[in-house]
Amino acid sequence: MKTKMSKKISSLERTNWRSLATMNDVREQIRQRWGDKLARKYDPTRNCRSYNSWKSFGFFVRKNERALTSIVYLPVEKNGEVKDVIRKRISLFYYPQLQRIIN
Prior knowledge:
This protein is of the alpha+beta class. The protein is about 40% helix and about 30% strand. The strands form two sheets. A three-stranded antiparallel β-sheet has the order 1-4-3. Strands 2-5 form a two-stranded antiparallel ribbon. The radius of gyration is 17 Å and the shape is globular.
């Protein structure tokens, strides 16, 4: 019999595994577009973000740049318990695709 806590832990373990898989998928997309050197510099927490996230940091995406695609898994909680996980496709931009907003 699984308790609420073990359900949450197993859900988090699946999410972490999926995060690792999507991180490697984005790294492979970077390797295909820009080569191994930039793929090694990939850090999903710092230099690969959504359009709106880059905009909030004072950058804009250069014209005609194509987004990298990734998938995130969002837990659905009900009454403090993880009931399901929703899969959502997101578009990301890597730092070579950006230009600083000049005021």
